[in-house]
């Protein structure tokens, strides 16, 4: 189980005045035949090599991992294992302190919630992207659904179900939905602060 922490003040939260811009993170350009919507901050940055590990160490993959989920089975555990490996490669795991361990657990919980929501409410997930620039870790799940995810209000802790987006909202610096006009599906993205 993860802990809920207040995020430190700083420049990592939502943009002022409702701006949609988010911190830029590197991306592998999508294949033309299977072009999926790209969440803010995950736009292509030719020649950019962002640091992937906390503390600014460069990751061999440029700080971005992609996992196709369309035809996979056991999607939620697969997504968690994939993300756990990225966190290990980027130096988040094994965690040296309780705060670093809690940060990694929060990331794994948010991945589980985003992928589960895509399975239950959006005709299944297509792709998971995990990107880290050293300060912010961004998760993005592309799905085939037309719905609009939102925290259930009022939130009732004692009721089963309906907690996914409430958890995402509580644990993340910011989250949102990106749609490609004229295309089915969407990308739900969430950002968490990297451990210090």
Numbering strands along the chain, what is their spatial order in the largest sheet? 1-2-3-5-4
The total count of strands amounts to 5
Structural class: alpha+beta
Low-confidence stretches: 1-60
SSE order, as H and E?
Answer: EHHEEHEE
**Envelope shape:** globular
Largest sheet: 5 strands, antiparallel
Beta content: 15-25%
Q: Termini separation (Å)?
A: 21 Å
Count of individual helical segments? 3
Radius of gyration over alpha carbons? 16 Å
Explain what the structure shows.
The structure is a single chain. The chain contains 3 helices and 5 strands. The chain has 196 residues and is an alpha+beta fold. The chain is 24% helix and 17% strand. The protein has helices at residues 75-89, 98-121, 164-171, and strands at 64-68, 125-132, 136-143, 174-178, 186-193.
List the keywords.
5-stranded antiparallel sheet; 17% strand; disordered N terminus
Furnish the topology, listing elements before pairings:
Elements: E1 64-68, H1 75-89, H2 98-121, E2 125-132, E3 136-143, H3 164-171, E4 174-178, E5 186-193
Helix pairs in contact: 1-2, 2-3
